[in-house]
Amino acid sequence: MLKTRLRRCAELVGNGASLARATGIPRRTLETYLSGAAEPKASRLYRIARAAGVSGHWLLTGEGPEQVDQAETVAEFVAIERSVVGHGAANGKNGLSERLSVDDSVPSRIAFQKDWLDRKGWSADVLRLVESHGDGMVPTVHDGSLLLVDVSLDGIREEGVYVLEGREALMIRRIQFDVEGGVIATNDNPAYREQYLQRDRADELDIFGKVVWVGNPLA
């Protein structure tokens, strides 16, 4: 029965609460699936299968092997290329020379679940993985943080955390607007001073991209 296979998925990730968190399905709704009071739509079945690492065909029909095969697993991941951010140099979107040595312990590409990117509304072909160096954006971004950056933007349309291209470096800044249309660029670390561009100079900022996700290392 489908509810039995759903309970097996919950068991594989720990329990119902863990499965709810992993899939983004409300806990109360998930409980109706586990009890058999309701059945999930195809999109939610897919998310449950992905979270539990089981075959979608097995989950839906009960046929075939429970575990997803390796070829299917690889096909559902996408590799994001890495750039470098740091003091003094970086390899930017527009061809900045790379003078900062790359940490070979961090791979040049890292795989992310395509389903997770799709749920966030992010397109893999316009994302870059950036490793941050320095303490300018602590506590939001730490030294060694990994950032997913949307590089499809040609300008700043909304406030947020951006990676900007300087003459010789990529810089992470929190961007805000004042009431007259000027741009305020700040670091989250209060030890750094804020910078201001008047409205007629705001378009001079070269945008590498907007930060959409931050993965911080544990201290």
Short descriptors:
alpha+beta, 434 Repressor (Amino-terminal Domain), Umud Fragment, subunit A, 219 residues, 7 helices, 9 strands, nine-stranded mixed β-sheet, 2 domains
Describe what this molecule looks like in 3D.
With 219 residues, this protein is α+β, with helices and mostly antiparallel strands. The chain folds into 2 domains: 2-69, lambda repressor-like DNA-binding domains (434 Repressor (Amino-terminal Domain)); 76-215, Ribbon (Umud Fragment, subunit A). Helices cover 27% and strands 24% of the residues. The protein has 7 helices and 9 strands. The protein has a 9-stranded mixed β-sheet with strand order 2-1-3-4-9-5-6-7-8. A hairpin with an 8-residue loop joins strand 7 and strand 8. Helix 1 packs across helix 2 (16-23) and helix 1 packs parallel to helix 4 (42-52). The model is unreliable at 86-105 (pLDDT under 50).
In brief, what are we looking at here?
Helix content is 27%, strand content 24%. It starts with a helix and ends with a strand.
Reconstruct the topology from this structure.
Layout: H1 2-13, H2 16-23, H3 27-35, H4 42-52, H5 56-61, H6 70-75, E1 77-84, E2 109-113, H7 114-120, E3 127-131, E4 146-150, E5 160-165, E6 170-177, E7 183-186, E8 195-197, E9 207-215
Parallel strand pairs: 1-3
Antiparallel strand pairs: 1-2, 3-4, 4-9, 5-6, 5-9, 6-7, 7-8
Helix pairs in contact: 1-2, 1-4, 2-3
